[in-house]
Amino acid sequence: MKAVTSLREALAQLPDTKQPYEYPLEGVLTLICLAMMCGQNGEREIARWAQAQRWALPERLGFPREKMPSLGTIQEALRRIPPTTFTRVVSEWAESVLQVQGASEGEGIAIDGKVVRGSRTDDQSAVHLLSALAHDLKLVLGQTPVADHTNEIGGIDPLLSDLVLEGRVVTVDAHLTQRKIAETIREKGGTT
Fold this sequence. Notes:
Number of helices: 8
Order of helices and strands: HHHHHHEEEHEH
Oligomer: single chain
Helix content: 40-55%
Number of domains: 2
Distance between the termini: 30 Å
Strand order of the largest sheet: 3-2-1-4
Radius of gyration: 18 Å
Shape: globular
């Protein structure tokens, strides 16, 4: 069986223009991903979760002994990398995991849109993302923002273009059941 690159190794590929840094950027980003996989969604929740892991994770993430990044460090790490670049690297890593795992016939991918809770400000409407989730891994393979004053139909083509659909069953919400979308999925080897 072929070895899988670790998530931290995948995140190490991201360009970091602000070295040196107290904590390696890929370690902080990996910490953020781990916290989110454990249900911590806000920056403060991630920072609290990180402190609770200070005995188990620092060495594995390249941090000083028993020391974890603060809320400010986590926020700075998130500002340093464009969200689209971060999403692309994590999606490519997830796809490589699926490839090594060996896609079983009929493996499912669910495509759904959600408004990001707490993302609305006085100057900006809430962020609306269209995501593709691998059922088996319970991992997002790709995400694309939905433009203001539009619907998810306009955002699905860029998302589908980045996904490997060969041999996979793709499910979508009722409003995405459009002939053109189904044709695109079938052209890429998927089933609707």
